[in-house]
């Protein structure tokens, strides 16, 4: 079996690092998007019709509800909203971001 040159080993190591970094960045972007979806506040201005009724996560009650108006559905169902916003990973991230917001306002 031929020996790999130092350059080849370094190139492979660099490629693996890039792949891992990109994968980690994608995961962070997905988590940020989920966090953002669960923090959207419903619009209560204007007249709502049943077809524009939105599904929103209420941080106070920690449950999803049909409320407000939205012409773009954030979640396909109440069950999807609950699964996304109340999973253990999201709860941990939400708690961390709330602590950071409190720290920023007190400093």
Automatic annotation (TrEMBL):
Residues 38-85 form the BPTI/Kunitz inhibitor domain. The keyword Signal applies. It holds the Pfam family Kunitz_BPTI. One of its GO terms (molecular function) is serine-type endopeptidase inhibitor activity. It comes from the Eukaryota. Keywords: Signal. SUPFAM superfamilies: BPTI-like (SSF57362). Residues 1-32 form the signal peptide. This is BPTI/Kunitz inhibitor domain-containing protein.
